[in-house]
Specification:
205 residues, 4-stranded mixed beta sheet
């Protein structure tokens, strides 16, 4: 089925693009959620008439989403589930579960806004993309655990790992920068410098 996109949709295209999609995807998602219209002659004309208004509303919604992104960007949401000793869940964590956790945290969220390639099936800290607007994507963390104590321990471990990662970045950037020829010469013993033809010539020129 060919449809006219009324907003940016994933990898399909931008507002106004006419794209071909599977009938089921169009009927079950794009059309009922108002993200597209069937690409009929009448709808093409309707889109062109309404285009300016659609673009204005889209811009307004995008700015509102950007303004609200800070309320959840980088936040962690705890989801308690039963799991075996190996950490495999008895069941899974779905987009609906994550949306409900975010909503319970104070930000209304629909499951269709949670961009999860596959249900989460293990305990741990899982980064998840959330679309506040088709052009405003933020990252949150789902802390899936068997108990509140385990969730706290996982969060602490994750924080320590992030701190170590940032410390390594700082070390590599400021303490151990990539050595240039000039930087290396400063720390080479005199005998070594003079015995290296390429460096000796540069020092003497």
């Amino acid at each position: 089925m060919e449809v006219i996109l009324l907003e940016r949709v994933g990898r399909l295209g931008q507002m106004g693009d006419v794209v071909k999609v599977k009938d089921g995807f169009a009927r079950n998602y794009l059309l009922p959620t108002g993200r597209a219209l069937r690409a009929t002659d009448a709808n093409r004309q309707k889109f062109e008439r309404d285009r300016a208004g659609l673009e204005a509303r889209n811009a307004q919604a995008r700015e509102a989403a950007k303004a609200g992104a800070g309320s959840i960007e980088g936040h962690t949401y705890v989801i308690i589930r039963q799991a075996g000793e190996s950490g495999q869940l008895y069941g899974s964590v779905s987009t609906r579960d994550i949306a409900e956790a975010i909503t319970a945290g104070g930000t209304a969220m629909a499951r269709t806004q949670v961009l999860l390639n596959a249900p989460i099936k293990t305990i741990g800290m899982h980064e998840v993309k959330v679309a506040l607007h088709p052009e405003v994507i933020v990252t949150v963390t789902a802390n899936v655990a068997r108990s509140a104590d385990e969730a706290e321990a996982q969060a602490r471990k994750g924080l320590e790992a992030r701190i170590r990662g940032e410390a390594l970045k700082i070390r590599d950037k400021y303490i151990n920068p990539p050595a240039t020829t000039e930087f290396a010469v400063m720390y080479l013993p005199t005998a070594t410098v003079l015995s290296t033809p390429s460096i000796s010539r540069s020092l003497c020129s």
